[in-house]
Design a protein that fits this description.
This protein is of the alpha+beta class. The chain has two domains: about 5-115, no CATH class; about 115-200, Immunoglobulin-like (Sandwich), CATH 2.60.40. About 30% of the residues lie in helices and about 20% in strands. The chain has helices at about 5-10, 25-35, 60-70, 85, 100-110, 220, 230-260; strands at about 15-20, 45, 75-80, 120, 125-130, 135, 140-145, 150-155, 160-170, 175-180, 185-190, 195-200. A hairpin with a 4-residue loop joins strand 9 and strand 10. It starts with a helix and ends with a helix.
């Protein structure tokens, strides 16, 4: 496979790398982010799929959530969209702003807002058994995402002393089963709920936990007064800006190349 990052990845004018994927596996979502991180720049999956869009690997909120967490634990970022809002051929269904998938994006924000993710790197090898994607600052903090649930064993040999461990349900924003574990060896963990799960281990003391129930309503999203005309104007303005920036970029390089002759 040939990607543009292979040609321009290390160039100074590249501030971050963007990906656009379709119907790929969770392993690929994770590993492709890790691969592009080799250029030491942020990696954003700009369009992995849209919630409820068939044929793109995210026909429901579960598949979108799994893809998102696979990307995040690969050390990357991603965007969210619902097919019934972004359609270019059908009127937008604004009720989808309050879908389960949209709420789960809020749960992601709640969880990661307490994590020093910028100090962490992908460390999938730390999961010595079970199926999990790991992001860690070895010796201090560990995140393991189990896309299918089950048990996982984490190598904590880099940590001396005790750590705190907890489970997070990415479907409901609920924390579970906080306990103390001992570093210096492997330790096994099993979530107290079914489905995909997030394991959080840290040398820091966790703050008091509450369930992060997110109920989206029109006022919360701020879309009460949005009309189709406003949305059309936004897309036209965006297209004009993108076209203008592209022209300036081409002219700049044309001038630079011809100025050398």
């Amino acid at each position: 496979m040939i990607v543009s990052a292979d040609s321009f990845g290390a160039d100074a004018w590249i501030d971050f790398h963007g990906q656009q994927t379709k119907a790929i596996s969770l392993d690929d979502h994770n590993s492709w982010i890790i691969s592009d991180r080799s250029y030491n720049k942020p990696v954003v999956n700009l369009e992995q799929c849209y919630e409820a869009e068939t044929g793109y690997g995210c026909t429901n909120d579960k598949e979108y959530r799994q893809a998102g967490w696979a990307i995040l634990t690969g050390g990357g970022f991603f965007t969210y969209g619902h097919v019934n809002i972004i359609s270019a051929t059908e009127p937008a269904d604004w009720s989808k702003l309050y879908s389960q998938g949209a709420a789960e994006m809020g749960y992601i924000k709640v969880f990661w807002s307490e994590i020093e993710w910028w100090k962490m790197t992908p460390e999938n090898s730390l999961a010595t058994s079970g199926t999990a994607y790991c992001l860690a600052n070895p010796g201090y903090e560990y995140i393991a995402y189990l896309p299918s649930g089950g048990s996982v064993t984490i190598n904590l040999s880099a940590t001396i002393g005790t750590l705190e461990a907890e489970w997070y349900d990415p479907k409901s924003g609920t924390y579970y089963d906080e306990r103390t574990v001992t570093g210096g060896a492997n330790d096994a963990f099993t979530p107290p709920f079914r489905g995909d799960a997030v394991l959080h281990i840290s040398t820091d003391t966790f703050p008091p936990r509450t369930t992060s129930v997110i109920t989206l309503a029109p006022n919360d999203a701020g879309w009460n007064n949005v009309t189709p005309v406003m949305v059309t104007f936004f897309f036209v303005l965006t297209a004009v800006l993108v076209f203008g920036v592209t022209i300036l970029f081409v002219l700049r390089h044309w001038k630079r190349d011809h100025g050398r002759r």
